[in-house]
Amino acid sequence: MTNLNLIIQGEDVATPDLKALHSIATGKAIERIADNAFRITGADADAAKRDAVAAHCARARLDWGFVAPGRALADFGLLAMDMDSTLISIECIDEIADFAGRKTEVASVTASAMRGEIDWPTSLRQRVSALAGLDETALARVYADRLRFNPGAERLIAAARDQGVKTLLVSGGFTYFTDRVRDRLKLDYAYSNVLDVAGGKLAGTVSGPLVDAGGKAAHLQRIASELGIAKERVLAIGDGANDLPMMAEAGTSVAYHAKPVVKAKATYALDYVGLEGVLNLLAG
């Protein structure tokens, strides 16, 4: 594949690295997109050159992606995102478990599930059961004190809204958080799991249809169908193995600071920059 744009971005993009990548991809010009984000035009993306670019960028701690010229966020009709560790910087269930003195135990199960090593629905029920008896005020404390958006998240969502792109949040976490994030960022849709509360205490169970890997993909499919948006105009972003079915339903997918199993199957991977990196990939 020739005449593509090679997008290079990172915390610090050194001039020697840019020049080397320009040579590897036999590009034409080097253009600045934003601070620490550059476009190498007329790049060649055959397998050997792609592998060489990937190897150089891994050594230099740079993110990269070959993109068709003119590709822009406005080309998409739907942006679907995971929440925990993608849109926000924490895993909510791990932080809730911290108030029960069981964060290490629960976080270990979360990490294993995100790597695809254990069955996700089983892992969710196991982790939720560890929260039984915890005062429900822990949820408010996690939201107020610990939930933070990842760098570039608000900018990405605002840009999508400005371009008329519908936004969908699909999370294996809990509606307590997704509903608030939806309202705060003015997202169009949000789906997650209902964490049961009884007598002001967490019951250690969830209710309603489970938003697992299949549930995420099903919500994306349904919304896209209702809006008449073809797969090619769907952009999906996630980080864990339970995001893979959702990402497979999108024409373009981005693995954000993701597990290796996710990066291996995504269209693009962002390991070093924030979510503004998606905008740099789609800067036209």
UniProtKB/TrEMBL annotation:
Q: Which GO terms describe its biological process?
A: L-serine biosynthetic process
Q: Which GO terms describe its molecular function?
A: L-phosphoserine phosphatase activity; magnesium ion binding
Entry cofactors: Mg(2+)
Active site residues per record: D82, D84
User: Keyword annotations for this protein?
Assistant: Amino-acid biosynthesis, Hydrolase, Magnesium, Metal-binding, Serine biosynthesis
This protein's GO CC annotations: cytoplasm
Q: Identify the residues that the record assigns to the DUF4072 domain, covering every copy.
A: 6-53
Which pathway does the UniProt entry assign to this protein? Amino-acid biosynthesis; L-serine biosynthesis; L-serine from 3-phospho-D-glycerate: step 3/3
Write out the catalysed reaction: O-phospho-L-serine + H2O = L-serine + phosphate; O-phospho-D-serine + H2O = D-serine + phosphate
- Which Enzyme Commission numbers does its entry carry? 3.1.3.3
What's this protein's family per the entry? Belongs to the HAD-like hydrolase superfamily. SerB family.
PANTHER family assigned to the protein according to its UniProt record, in alphabetical order: PHOSPHOSERINE PHOSPHATASE
Q: Under what name is this protein listed?
A: Phosphoserine phosphatase
Organism (species): Usitatibacter palustris
Organism lineage reads as:
Bacteria, Pseudomonadati, Pseudomonadota, Betaproteobacteria, Nitrosomonadales
